[in-house]
Amino acid sequence: MLQQADIDAIRGKPVQARELLINGAFRPSKSGETLTIISPIDGSELTTIASAGKEDVDDAVAAARNSFESGVWSKAPPGERKKVLFRVAELIEKHALELAVLGVRDNGTEIGMAMRGEPGSAAATFRYYAEAIDKVAGEVANTAQNYFGMAQREPVGVVGAIVPWNFPLMISAWKLAPALAVGNSVVIKPAESASLSLLRLAELALEAGLPEGVLNVVTGRGSVTGEALALHMDVDVLVFTGSGTIGRRLLEYSARSNIKRVYLELGGKSPNIVFADAPDIDAAVKGSVNGMFRNSGQVCVAGSRLLVQKSIAEEFTEKLVATANELKVGDPLNLDSDVGAVANAEQLGIDLKYVDVARNEGATLATGGNQILEETGGYYMQPTVFTGVDSQMTIAQEEVFGPVLSVIEFDDADDAVRIANSTPYGLAAGVWTSNLTTAHQMVSAIRSGVVHVNCYGGAPISLPMGGMKQSGNGYDRSLHALGKFTNLKTAWFSLDL
Hints:
single chain; 2 domains; 15 helices
């Protein structure tokens, strides 16, 4: 069981300056440039990381290509790759508290959620794909007797990955584990404000026996490091989780370079729909609060649009606001904090601007809306609830990516579907109802990749996650993710000769 004393014993340890991982060795950037990492807990300088330039990215991609072509990993028996990935999972679990605390100091996620969502999830992901690696087979076609046809999957080669700051370990594992499992080499760029836990994971991967050059980590600015990776002519596939603005740019970079395949998991404005016949109103309130305010609302599937049927809207909203007000916002490394810090000063500023926009457009601020705990030097914001929100208001259409919830009332199922589908996004949704027919109809009608029924969040790694509309393409998680990292090759044999 997680103990405060164990957290306190390591929370203040100095964090060494971190370098790039290229071809199995850590080294500074060729320019010598570094970026200062500021902890959102108290605004203090935590450490520095190397800022990679184009030449560094070139070196990392070359290392990945050389390791792939050598066959040291790509041609290793599946059982051998499996053993290494299992060791990665074991080492993540062994160092789970260290990884979680390091990540919290970097991005402000509350420690309880960080333990589950970061090392806990990452270890499970590596273990899942390790277990799958020698069980995924090709296909043999039904053909005439004098022919033989088969389809087999091969690793694509060099995978580029760009991951965000909200869950750097979890989301990186969603990319790394399946890509490595099928034999690829990877160059990954973490967010400049949340690189530390991923760099530590890379060290553990080397310790587990991953060959040099198979995993390379380049830290730095998205406009420099990320752009160089996305434009690189020797990257075969690019995977990305982040904003739609950057996702569009990456598609352009693909067209300008080698037309690499690009898979995007972008933003969301997820509708969480509560019908009057919800089986347990209090459970729906709790699920709605947790599904919105965990990690300060910095969750891509956050249920940021709460659609409540009019007949229960007043009662439900009162309970919702009361529950939100009970959340304790504070030091994310204290176990008694329910909500931690906003990840960085820039994001906090964006969140507060959306509060002003909502007020100016006529929404009613039911609770929250302010920065708090400014005396700590950190970046904290009250859980914020707006009522009287129209589905076309800015806060109901744009992803805030902060602790700002919009409550929208609806008449019936048709009205709920209309509102739910009224944004450009289609990542996730929730439905609370006792009516099985209603649940099935809503799952079919809502245009999103994930629909939760009488819950919000918590699906295992064995289920896929992907978006519709402007929430992206391709799938993370489950066996479906393997398709992003493999080429399908057909072999056609004549048996007459």
